């Protein structure tokens, strides 16, 4: 068992303290995610209200900050109905699959730096797996079951349509999503999230250039688009298009099970933002407070977490902005974007950055290699685009 | 000790899942049991130190492939309980016999290394420079490059063939009807 191989906590002898620290970290991360979801929902409603010149939630607590808590308590005590035609066991199972995978995916995120708890050195991160980022792909793949089974087991039309849509969408964008991650892994040369973050560590303003958002900008853009599609967030929320599908896969769910789906959805959103921060924006890297001791509690515990949370919040604000301003895509636009643009661009990006990295390692002339590989990539893209049937041909074929 | 407990737990899940696949009358339930088996297989791979294989097992088999199974089951609406009358009477005894043969072979292979090579590749995987993933990648792209590329070519051919079959245009269909 070498699952935690990267974490110094698990490299020594595993005694009771170590087990307690791991349990403590698990509970802390879970609580962190729950509170984050609660605050995110409130924040989203407030910001959207502002953008629409409304007031938004303002009654529960100061600025309505307890609104999500009130909603959660209300949902907890509501009646939970089960349709007669439902497949009961699967119907009960589905929300928990969603929740579990959403939570597990977050466990690989480095939240802070290396700290010392009760005499043990450890990372502020639940698990530093050797397969690292592949675990995220595994969890987002398994998370699909929650959505799919929820729709199927409801035994009703609209949820089934919603879940078929969801699985088609998530499978399609999983390809672009995975390739975008490969696009940055090629440059990082490691799968471990901790190692990726370490490569972007803060040593001064110059280390902004080592954040993969700059050397892997194309991958960053593809990652953001496909991550938003993976989480079924607007403008890709065809899965729960109210006008067409009532509520999509969770139409038949009520009470706390419905709340769990919502919780999982927002957890996924936060996880995706956190992954984007980890892969492209340096994770917990950021300037520490110079006037305090570099080994003091503030600079080892607080500042990395502060930078991590701040960066995640910027991205989360972006998602709220998308929700407030963009209309939903049509289904064919969604599929076109995923299959005809993002996947190809991601493939070409992987090839181009592979060539550049080999060129750098072999000592080729980079001034020649970089433009040539870009040109080659554009050439391949041009050939691919030209070989695709155009719209009129497709329409003719269907008619 | 921990390894043994985990192995037994995963083994129980795998066996129960495998039985569930066969016994369930509802195809969707069968697919879910299959997921349980595949996930516990991933657990075995982790116990053997093969992290990459374990991740691939979950990403490719437990999620992508079984999700596609479910997708087809849902789209085709075959998620009703099937009748258990057998159109081919010979099937069952032959299946039973073949199953017994495979089982006997497996039991036979357990004690013999002539077919599988020496047991426990764990040490080889964990020693040396680079992690598990890097070593697998290096093997695939150096020693086994040719079979790897052949396999990928095979997959591409299958996909292109599938698309070509599925996307026969209306005009071609009309032409073939006229020809008949």
Automatic annotation (TrEMBL), chain A:
Membrane topology: Multi-pass membrane protein
Keyword terms, alphabetized: Membrane, Transmembrane, Transmembrane helix
PROSITE patterns the UniProt entry points to: COMPLEX1_ND1_1, COMPLEX1_ND1_2
GO MF, one annotated term: NADH dehydrogenase activity
Transmembrane portions of the chain: 20-43, 90-111, 131-152, 173-197, 209-229, 259-281, 301-321, 341-358, 364-384
Entries under Pfam families matching the protein: NADHdh
GO annotations of cellular component type: membrane
BP term (GO), one: aerobic respiration
Localization, UniProt: Membrane
HAMAP family per record: NDH1_NuoH
Record protein name field: Unannotated protein
Record lineage: unclassified sequences, metagenomes, ecological metagenomes
Automatic annotation (TrEMBL), chain B:
Gene3D superfamilies xref list: NADH-ubiquinone/plastoquinone oxidoreductase chain 6, subunit NuoJ (1.20.120.1200)
Keywords of the record: Membrane, Transmembrane, Transmembrane helix
One Pfam short name: Oxidored_q3
Gene Ontology MF term list: NADH dehydrogenase (ubiquinone) activity
Entries under InterPro entries matching the protein: NADH_UbQ/plastoQ_OxRdtase_su6 (IPR001457), Nuo/plastoQ_OxRdtase_6_NuoJ (IPR042106)
Transmembrane parts of this sequence: 6-24, 31-52, 58-78, 90-110, 144-166
Protein name from the UniProt record: Unannotated protein
